[in-house]
From TrEMBL:
Its EC number is 1.13.11.54, 1.13.11.53. It comes from Thiopseudomonas alkaliphila. This is Acireductone dioxygenase. The record marks 102 as: May play a role in transmitting local conformational changes. The record marks 96 as: May play a role in metal incorporation in vivo. Keywords: Amino-acid biosynthesis, Dioxygenase, Iron, Metal-binding, Methionine biosynthesis, Nickel, Oxidoreductase. The record marks 105 as: Important to generate the dianion. It catalyses: 1,2-dihydroxy-5-(methylsulfanyl)pent-1-en-3-one + O2 = 3-(methylsulfanyl)propanoate + CO + formate + 2 H(+); 1,2-dihydroxy-5-(methylsulfanyl)pent-1-en-3-one + O2 = 4-methylsulfanyl-2-oxobutanoate + formate + 2 H(+). Pathway: Amino-acid biosynthesis; L-methionine biosynthesis via salvage pathway; L-methionine from S-methyl-5-thio-alpha-D-ribose 1-phosphate: step 5/6. Fe(2+) binds at residues 97, 99, 103, 141. Catalyzes 2 different reactions between oxygene and the acireductone 1,2-dihydroxy-3-keto-5-methylthiopentene (DHK-MTPene) depending upon the metal bound in the active site. Fe-containing acireductone dioxygenase (Fe-ARD) produces formate and 2-keto-4-methylthiobutyrate (KMTB), the alpha-ketoacid precursor of methionine in the methionine recycle pathway. Ni-containing acireductone dioxygenase (Ni-ARD) produces methylthiopropionate, carbon monoxide and formate, and does not lie on the methionine recycle pathway. Its cofactor is Ni(2+); Fe(2+). The lineage of its organism: Bacteria, Pseudomonadati, Pseudomonadota, Gammaproteobacteria, Pseudomonadales. Belongs to the acireductone dioxygenase (ARD) family.
Amino acid sequence: MSCLAIYLSNEPIQPIKLLNHLEDIQTELGKVGVRFEQWQTVSSIQAGADPAAVLAAYAEPIQRLQQEQGYQTVDVISMDEKHPERETLRQKFLSEHQHAEDEVRFFVAGQGLFSLHIADLVYVVLCRRGDLISVPAGVKHWFDMGERPHFVAVRLFNNPEGWVANFSGDAIADDFPRLEDFL
Ligand SMILES: CSCCC(=O)/C(O)=C/O
Ligand SMILES: [Fe+2]
Ligand code: NI
């Protein structure tokens, strides 16, 4: 089940709020401009699927989102425990950063943990198969794929260069829970 835990940024041990119903998660994230949806999944698409098949299976909702928000580029990222760059990528995504564009991710399979640092709060969102999250441009965040990563996600960009991040240099993520703490 997807969930949202909200922490004070200086108290990473105990969340001040823990939500696991879609409407509650949407309402709370909506207050800070974060879009969260659950899309119907296509059962034939599993981890390891060909990226073109993933994009074809979800062509309609992806196109709708692109038209609505003007996203120019779409790709598929697949990660598993055999991926040669899994540890490098895990550490990169775990460093607090922000993007000059929305970070839009649809989880086709598996799971990942987004943590959004907004003012003096940290919103930790467990995303699972079927979840769409859109983190607004400029929001500081990090992402944990876990020690044994397993996810496939569609990424939408309005920057034709794809993934570009500005790292804050703040080690805040080291104090906060990891993916395994939420599974
Ligand atoms: C779930 S896609 C990989 C993570 C990513 O692109 C990112 O920017 C994390 O913050
Ligand atoms: Fe990011
Ligand atoms: Ni319930």
